[in-house]
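FORM 7B: Structural annotation worksheet

SECTION A. Query
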Amino acid sequence: MYLRIRQRPRLWDGDYVSLCDVHRVVVRCQVGFRGDVYDYGCGGAPYADLFRGCRSYVKADVVPGPVVDKLLGADGMTGERDGAYDWVFSTQVLEHVPEPANYFRECWRILRPGGELLITTHGFYPEHGCPHDFHRWTADCFLRELRGAGFEIVTGGKLSTGVRGSVQMLHHCVWNLRAPGGGPWSLLLGLVRKTYGWLGVPVLNWMADRFPGQAEASADSVGALYIGVYAHARKPRG
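SECTION B. Predicted structure
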């Protein structure tokens, strides 16, 4: 389920909108993937197939797993040598990092001059610890922190804006319609959630797909509600 929902989101999936929009950005950047790639916080490595044409693809995380090649240190650092990689890849990881500035500096350090970073994380999204959830970003702050770490921004901004972002947030709002302590309200709200899951989720996801232009937007766009942020950045040469 973890891999399928990220690789092939379906209309009945509650996170269909946000996962589609992240996937779209990753696939668009795929044409530039080359050389040695470091997946920094890989999880189950759902996008591994996109790196088959690269010289190497190293999957690293803080906990061992069936696809993890290298374990990160207790402080989240990689232990890699300076300038070891052409790409660093990071999707939906940064919100779980206690000190994002250290993470950005480590990305910069292990990249070769001219190396590139593709990173996505959350804008407005409910808390989801695994085991911890520390941060959310506005698009301006996110890009500012990357520049502060020494990166040049190739492109970046907001993901799942406007109608698409509103639909995604509505799903989460309905899932949280829960009455404490049981009783008739609990039964009623449980029925609302179940009905919404069967009918509302796919219908509203279908409607969101009528607005493909709201899948992403620049950081300075007027949209005030967006589910995610992303950046394609580069370590300067010289």
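SECTION C. Observations
The longest strand covers residues 111-122. The CA atoms of residues 217 and 231 lie 11 Å apart.

SECTION D. Sign-off
Analyst initials: ____
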